[in-house]
């Protein structure tokens, strides 16, 4: 099997910690992205969680 990655994207509302970190109001819409990358032999080698503002930025991903 080749090297691959999976991602899950979901909408969340900013809690107090995320609101302070991202300089948005509590309850602001955010995107949460969980990514797992797999190496040869289907071994997980990376886990990443990102939380993104939706008012000034967009999420784009290109995998190959």
Describe this structure in words.
It is a single chain. The protein is built from one helix and three strands; from the N terminus they run E-H-E-E. The chain has one helix at residues 16-22, and strands spanning 4-13, 29-39, 43-53. The model has no long low-confidence stretch (mean pLDDT 91). The longest helix is centred in the N-terminal third of the chain and has 7 residues, at 16-22. A hairpin with a 3-residue loop joins strand 2 and strand 3 (43-53). It is mainly beta and 64 residues long. The protein is 11% helix and 50% strand. The protein has a three-stranded antiparallel sheet with strand order 1-2-3, with no helix packed on it.
In short:
This protein has 64 residues and is mostly beta strands. The chain contains 1 helix and 3 strands.
Write the layout of secondary structure elements.
Layout: E1 4-13, H1 16-22, E2 29-39, E3 43-53
Antiparallel strand pairs: 1-2, 2-3
């Amino acid at each position: 099997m080749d090297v691959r990655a999976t991602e899950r994207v979901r909408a969340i509302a900013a809690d107090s910690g995320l609101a302070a970190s991202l300089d948005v109001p509590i309850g602001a819409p955010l995107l949460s992205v969980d990514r797992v990358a797999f190496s040869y032999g289907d071994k997980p080698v990376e886990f990443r969680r990102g939380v993104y503002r939706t008012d000034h930025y967009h999420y784009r991903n290109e995998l190959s």
